[in-house]
Amino acid sequence: EVELVESGGGLVQAGGFLRLSCAASGFTFDDYAVGWVRQAPGKEREAVGCRNRLDGALYYGDSVQGRFTIFSDNAKTTLTLQMNSLKPEDTAVYYCVAGANYCPGQFDYKGQGTQVTVSS
């Protein structure tokens, strides 16, 4: 059974940093591509970034490029999102997602989400 569990959200001031983690079970990152999406109230879901399962290539959304970094542990079961230079517009619920045809393409699985709030 595939499970994704996020942790590490919280409240931070603008310009600060946070690190989110996603613990995956039931698969490794050789089986499924993994990544992060976010959704703020009243806004559409936005791609944050993802890791391709075939070559490990990383892709980032335009709004986070250069500020956020995705990396995996050696076991390829924990995905980390390092978020630096946070802005109030980064406030959202962040979800860890995975899928066989994801990155690019649609994900099949999503975690419960973790709230990130950036104060100005």
Describe it.
This protein is mainly β and 120 residues long. 0% of the residues lie in helices and 50% in strands. The protein contains no helices and 11 strands. The chain has strands at 3-7, 10-13, 18-25, 33-39, 46-51, 58-60, 68-72, 78-83, 92-99, 109-110, 114-119. Strands 2, 4, 5, 6, 9, 10 and 11 form a 7-stranded mixed beta sheet that branches. A hairpin with a 6-residue loop joins β4 (33-39) and β5. The N and C termini lie far apart (40 Å). The model has no long low-confidence stretch (mean pLDDT 96).
Give a quick rundown of the structure.
The protein is mainly β and 120 residues long. It is 0% helix and 50% strand. Strands 2, 4, 5, 6, 9, 10 and 11 form a 7-stranded mixed β-sheet that branches. Strands 1-3-8-7 form a 4-stranded antiparallel β-sheet, with no helix packed on it.
